[in-house]
Predict the 3D structure of the following.
Amino acid sequence: MMKVAIIGAGLGGLLSAAILSEEGNSVDIYDRLPFSGGRFTNIPYKGFQLSTGALHMIPHGNRGPLGKILKQVGSKVEIEDSKPEGLALWEGELKTVRRKDFPRGSRNKMIKWYLLHKIFRRDRTLDKFEEGIDTFTANFLRSFLGWSLSITPSDIKFSKFLSIVKNVEKFGGPGIPIGGCKAIIDSLTEIIKSNDGTVNLRKKVEGIFFSNDIVEGIKLKEKLKYDLILSNIGHDLTARILGDEEYIRRASKLQPSSGVKFSIALEEPFIGNTGVLFTPELKRISGLNEVTNADPNLAPGGKHLLMAHQAVLTSNLKYEINLGLSDLKELLKNYKYEVIAIQSYSNGWPVNRIKAGNDIGYRTPYKNLYIVGDGAKGDCIEVDGIAAGIRNLMRDLV
Amino acid sequence: MDLPIANFLTQQRRHNTEMMAVANYCVGCAFCMLVCPEEAINVLGNAEIDREKCSDCKRCMRYCPVEAIRLVE
């Protein structure tokens, strides 16, 4: 049995705590904030269950890495798989976005790039793929990358994109947790507590003490000894509380991705189903979901909660937000709607702590200190990437 | 209360005590706005606190994930 400290009660921290406490280890989680769940929980606002970060959605629903771990630790949380998985709004019509829905020229280019990658290991960024293809495919690619990773085609290499496409085909599309993100957080917390683990809120970890390359414990007001430390606050912040200059230098090079989320109240549904609506024609908004079609309790009195996401593409955040708002005005021109919250994410509280494709893994310069969560995702997107990273780490720990 | 004297007293209190202030590294996640019991915070890229409505309860400060809300003199 190990004595484990987890810094940060976000999804990554709680998920690892649930697994380790199920295996009989003694687990204590510490978080500076007065609530657990980080960027993956709910805050009630005007009767709506708004999400702190993620859009009440799991990219690969029940069948992806997160869905699998939740089942493995005995979580009873219900995830409604999206139907349809995703549609694109294009020239006033809803289009399905399976392989066959893209023009032959673009499909052939994909096959050509795939073969060049397989045979010659050619791996270029996707802006080169975008050149010369039809506008629907090019714009859809932009909205897909904006929605799932808050990046543009020039930010991602073909190999990484290929693995995302393969995962969609392997695990299927998204799902909406009934009760929102918080239902998952509550369920994990219950599991951890039933295994005598503790979740300590408003407890800021000030430091990690170590000798050579072994960490020995954490500093709150007092020093506490642990056998294993998992950090859910990313490489950069972890390096800073260690005070390890070399590690800080390496970690501070990691670039986060930025985005904006709009929570919109509607009297009548706009999407009307549980899938993602991609908006490849809009200037900034890349996609939306309407979570109340899966769980009406996420909004008060029969209203609907529509959530829209955009990547931030310039350094002028207010300008970016205004583009998003004008997109919404255009998109919802025939609907009565109210934007109830505009939330932006960057720097120390980003969409992703590390831009897709730049992950450096969960290892740190210390043998018994690992990074979990968004700062060390495995080969999958968003929260399924968090789960994949943890799945890999757990195999490594055995 | 709409009495001028009450407004005057409120302002005096505000001027004499510490106030909540938002640092420029606020990211705009709006947790503060969502948890403010007085609806005193507006967020559009960064948080702005309406000093007239603020009751100094410090809830926003506790919920800020980047420690951008602080008490200043």
Q: What stands out?
A: Chain A touches chain B at residues 33-35, 38, 43-45, 50, 52-53, 202, 317-318, 321, 341-350 (CB under 8 Å). Residues 193 and 199 of chain A are 8 Å apart (CA to CA).
